[in-house]
Amino acid sequence: MENNFQLSDWLPTTKKEARIRGWETLDVIIFSGDAYVDHAAFGPAVLGRILESFGLKVAIVPQPSVNDNLQDFTKFGKPNLFFAVTAGAMDSMVSNYTANKRRRDKDAYTPNGDKGFRPDYAATVYSKIVKEKFPDVPVVIGGIEASLRRVTHYDYWSDTLKPNILTDSGADLLVYGMGEQPLRELVNLLQKGVPFESLKTIRQTGFLANSKEEIPKNKNWDDVAIHSHETCLKDKKSFAANFKVIEQESNKIKGRRILQEVKDQYLVINPVFPTMTEQEIDASYDLPYTRLPHPKYKDRGPIPAYEMIKFSINIHRGCFGGCSFCTISAHQGKFIASRSKRSILDEVDKVTQMPGFKGNLSDIGGPSANMYQMKGKVQEICDKCVAPSCISPVICHNLDTSHKPLTEIYQAVDAHPKVKKSYIGSGIRYDMLVPEFNKTADPKELDEYTEEVITNHVSGRLKVAPEHTSDAVLKLMRKPSFKYFHKFKKRFDQINKKRKLNLQLIPYFISNHPACEVEDMANLAVETKDMGFQLEQVQGFTPTPMTVATVIYYSGYHPYTLKEVYTPKTKKEKADQHRFFFWYKKENHTWIRNTLKKVNRDDLVAKLLQKSAYKGSKKNKHPKKKEFVSIMPKQKKKAFN
Prior knowledge:
The protein is α/β, with parallel strands linked by helices.
């Protein structure tokens, strides 16, 4: 398949490539923190292909150098319409640093995983350079970094409260969330002759306005003002209170326009677009991608993020879980946009023709694997809803959680003559498969889906995310009680035994989350030990902009109740909590005894440190006793515009 492509099948990255297409000038120039992969899972490619579909001349400058004479920013000259800027598929600070603020050794979106090709705060850095070089050319900023930093936000890496990214970057217009709908409207208006400076009423965009000028708006919109940036700097409770408004308005079908004072300006955040229709989301995936990295990387090594997804199919967007530590719903939205069966199977056919395809699809999924085509039974109820989650604390009675369409998709994909096996690599919401929790669903249908997945779509390990064992912590996380994980594991073990599959169930856990005390981590260690799990590498909570947990981490207040919440923040507190994951290491035993005795929990000491028969080295001597399952770290795939 690769040999059938010519260089001109990719969007140009150099003037030479632009001239191959006969272009001397360009309409839009895109700067991206990622290497250029022409694939629907990579936002800059989607952005470029949409612009191209309007007949525009578009170029991409991937990972422009900011450490030289900045020629990457000037080599194409001025575009006719605007510059577009994105940090890439991840917030650059998450990409560059660990939860302990150590610089990462690898960048998954760079050839060979090489680091150093993406600056810190990339979207801001790129925008500032472009505005300095071309002050009269509009700059549109978007992608996950811009999206999640669209209002006053806490930045963990600098430990400061930052204003909206428009203030910091100098960009003219912000596109937040998945950008296809606002981008299409923006281009439509420009092609009709509307001046860029008049583009103030496009949904899912934001801009800065002089506080003395009248701000135009759609007559059907209502406004809501949140505490100013300056107030947030002085009062953490006001900052926390802002988040409830932001989250609720972002998840409404008909949200209000948000206004926030910043010095002598107003930040204006227009309401979101309605959820993409099947036809709209299909249109994004049906664009003429090569599905391959640009040929310029041929000798630089594979791009890890691409290698992970190149033989996978994304079938829907959005997540109605609303987990307190997760940014997916803040960026992709709470409501699910699902592709058609036709579009999915067309992409499967293209994947089977790719070089290196050996018959196995690595994933058929989305942000959460099992939310395809799920939505409200009565739309009018959803129209009035302000709940951040459809499944916490209980599954909404109005939510259709039928897994039948998903099972049918799996079976249709597997029927393709060139597909030997399709796997589910995305995380599965196991709680929706437990009848005792998902009370409105047909238990038989849930059981059929569960057996279909475990029997036909698991490659050795099934990954799920209970996240914690403490009900108090789980409630704040917007996750169900751990008792439902026990029920799911029981069903998993039954199917595993019946089918003689020898599969492993891999649960993921988080330490240091708001509301989590040392005692909670000790209980987690005891309960997972009792279930036969030995935790090797696990995840510490990382505060990222636009989540409930991050607001609590910084402010100390829950944004919905404004009540104080304890959060482990010091290096020692975090290390102590994390240490309980590794109770089985002898060097931790004395510390565990002393720590638990201080909180009068000798009972946990006995349970945690008593001699265990589960040691792998003795499993042949004790064949009837439980064996530990090792747990690897949580890696969340994020393919964002």
